[in-house]
Amino acid sequence: MRIKWWIPIVKAICCLCLVVPFLTGCWDRLEIEERAVVLGVSIDAVSSDDANEEEDEVSHISGSIPAPSKGMVRVAVQIALPGRIPLGPGEGGGGKGSAGETVWVIDVVGHSIDDAFMNLQQQVSSKLFFGHLRVIVVSEKLARRGLENVNDYFRRNPEVRRMAWLMVAKGNAIKFMTATPQLERVPALYLMSTLDEGIRMGKFPKDYIGIFWSNVSKKGQEGFLPYVEMKKEQNVGIIGLAYFNDAKMVGATKPLEIAGYLGVKGVNPAGYRVYIQLDGAQESVMTNATHRRSKIKVSIIDNVPQFTIDIAIELNLEAKLNENVKINDPRILQSIEKKQEGLSVLFYSNLIKKTQVKGADIFGFGEYVRAFKPQFWHAHVKTAEGWRSMYKESKFEVKVSLKIRRIGMKAQ
Amino acid sequence: MESRQITVIQAAAILVSTIIGVGVLALPLFAVQAADSGAPLVTMLGVLLAVIGLVLVTLLSMRFPNHTFIQYSELIIGKSLARIGSVLIIIFFSILTSLTAREFGEVVVTSVLRSTPVEVTVIVMLLLAAISTRNNIITFAYIHTFYFPLLLVPVLLIAALSLKNAEVINLLPVWGTDPKKMLKGMLTIAALFQGTFVLTAVIPAMKKPSKAMKASLWGILIAGGLYVIIVAAAVSVFGSEEIKQLLWPTLELAKATSLPANILERLDAAFLAVWVTAVFTTLFSSYYLTIYFISHLFRLREHKQFSYFLLPFVFVTAMLPQNIVQMYEIIESVGRIGLYITIVYPTLLLFISILRKKRGNPIANQMVDPNR
Amino acid sequence: MISESYTMSYLNYVILLCLLSGILILVIDVRSFEIAGLNKERKVSKFLGWFSIIIGSILMMSEIIFQ
């Protein structure tokens, strides 16, 4: 036993050694009040002359680390104020809680998105945290200049979720950050719910930032984004789809043409209402689509893809403008269906033509060619550019069949 | 001490949890780079190749149910030649261990713990594996069996939930584009299955070595099926072109998937937690195999002294790749070299043993020390 | 190898690991083999343990000298 006296001491030292790691703390410890939770971001294109004066040299220095020459951006962020965000419906906490008090909006300029965020970080004490980023609004000017940098930055950042919304604003994007809509206490969440509810009501396709990225990447499809505008009373309106060539915006649709997109893709539920003029402008009725179905077929005729789009929509009759038309006869309903079918074919074809002019295949017809006619694709198309020019020449045949099922609670 | 106790289910579980590991994250990227929309097909072909390799290895091991790989390779081709082969295998598996640990570290540093030094993540993981490898093969089997359901369920859940966003058209045409690239991709994917070599250490401790084939087929088919499902889910949700833009498509898939009713809006944290276990079991197997083979090469009856001894060396190897791009290049080439070691070499041994009519005792009734 | 990756200063970790593994082998494994009566294993572990400690010490020395 005489040589073993040191064993307890060694054991004690070992135990102490085991405790040491607990004292060091964690590298990535970041308390919730130490992070600046960014809920929304807006990005505007600005002219270099104005911005250069305002900007500090944070990630570049004239001389040694020159800034890129590409146009400059103004980035505004909505940072959640800790403690002010209501956590649940029951939690009044302060009661008044108008939107302006729950978030803090700051804006900076920079040469690129990352540069702008670094300029911002230089001003904000807490670490910017993008894990709860819900909405990114870019101005139309920037979208037309190209979104490569935006896509790259947010794709590379591991915190950003693919379920966030990216949207294009008519005019300045920063307005969407400073707006204070009344329905929701957090403005960014209001913007998000506008679009999320749009999906639920059949007024907007699923187009999260992840889906947009996928569409931009695909060879036979172009991306599109919600096109939004600031309305009265700080409200937000969806005024169409902004469609892209690669990461460059090339045009925008009208609001009703979103319904055209949804119809061609057969997205459910359906939710758009349209006027149908029966003989003369006086006798119009309004119908509401409830269910859509579409079938897209592709065939190659003379080395040009020919698409047949079969759209079937179920309708409810919603309203009529005067009492001249009696809705109590199946034949009348049938005539309304016929009338609307004729109009719809024209409507869908026009929308497709509109995108064809720009070579922006937001419907993904090219994906059908790639998937079902691979030989043709490899011989004649191959790349995204190839499809862009091929799309302009493609032929489309739209067939629409409509069925009015219900007329509401009124008998006539 | 009871010796031969590993059952067929345990053996299959060992295989599954060994195969499913760090490679899951980058798997869709490898598959898509090889075959665009034919990624599920190329994965399936890769699995097929791995199945063939594993079947040959199993046949070989079943010829010598009482011996480990090191021992019967000496019986078949003579001591000096076999020792060269054994040393190569040991080196290969220690490199595999270190690369697994490094890849794990890189993922964690990039996506979750962004300011923790990568060295620390790697050391913690290696230490965990090293401590676990001090047990004998029976405990080894129990640990794998314990984690086995934990790996399967969440991955299947994510694949099932992501179907909500899936588009079948992304999977067409199923045969992909370029046959030459496909062959290369097939090898890359088959290389993800190299952990199956652990079977050569498991069979000598199996209750009924004659049923080893059943275990190996079940194991690799479950793991392979899971891999195909993951690739198919990722491709159908993102499309092949988008996957080429993503370093870890499976992680991105978990990020894009939400539980119904928005209970969890993104599953990447949950997925990473499971994935850590998957990495651990893979690391555990390759580490175990390394020290187990070393101890057999030196005819020792215990292997645990090597578990700590190897740690600094494995760690240094893990730190050798200079950056993440280089790391993936190394992983791919090491994997392809590994195919020679884990498939071609055992196949040669099998044919030579058939030609020379060498085989071990067919019925293994004698007691074998589990620590061997 | 080590000079090449001077930005990643993982040498400290290697030293720590070498010393730690050496000590652990000497303290745990050598003793347990002694009790179990496995003589060859005991000798090997003793060698491995001292080997690790020596390597760790050499690395530590070289770091102290060259920095």
From TrEMBL, chain A:
InterPro entries: GerAC_N, Spore_GerAC-like, Spore_GerAC-like_C, Spore_GerAC_C_sf
One GO location term (cellular component): membrane
Pfam families on file: Spore_GerAC (PF05504), Spore_GerAC_N (PF25198)
Family: Belongs to the GerABKC lipoprotein family.
Membrane disposition: Lipid-anchor
Compartmental location: Membrane
Protein name per its UniProtKB record: Spore germination protein KC
Keywords (A to Z) from UniProt: Germination, Lipoprotein, Membrane, Palmitate, Signal
Residue span(s) of domain Spore germination GerAC-like C-terminal: 240-408
Spore germination protein N-terminal domain: residues covered: 28-229
Organism: Paenibacillus endophyticus
From TrEMBL, chain B:
GO CC terms in record: membrane
Topological type in the membrane: Multi-pass membrane protein
Compartments (UniProt record): Membrane
Gene3D superfamilies reported in the protein's UniProt record: Amino acid/polyamine transporter I
Keywords, comma-separated and alphabetical: Germination, Membrane, Transmembrane, Transmembrane helix, Transport
TM spans (from-to): 12-35, 41-60, 81-101, 107-128, 140-163, 183-205, 217-239, 269-294, 306-325, 337-355
Main localization category: membrane
InterPro entries the record matches: Spore_GerAB
Superkingdom per UniProt: Bacteria
An example Gene Ontology biological process: spore germination
Family: Belongs to the amino acid-polyamine-organocation (APC) superfamily. Spore germination protein (SGP) (TC 2.A.3.9) family.
NCBIfam families with a match to the protein in the record: 2A0309
Protein name: Spore germination protein
Species for this entry: Paenibacillus endophyticus
Species lineage: Bacteria, Bacillati, Bacillota, Bacilli, Bacillales
UniProtKB/TrEMBL annotation, chain C:
Swiss-Prot/TrEMBL keywords: Membrane, Transmembrane, Transmembrane helix
TM annotation in the entry: 6-27, 47-66
Protein name: Uncharacterized protein
Organism: Paenibacillus endophyticus
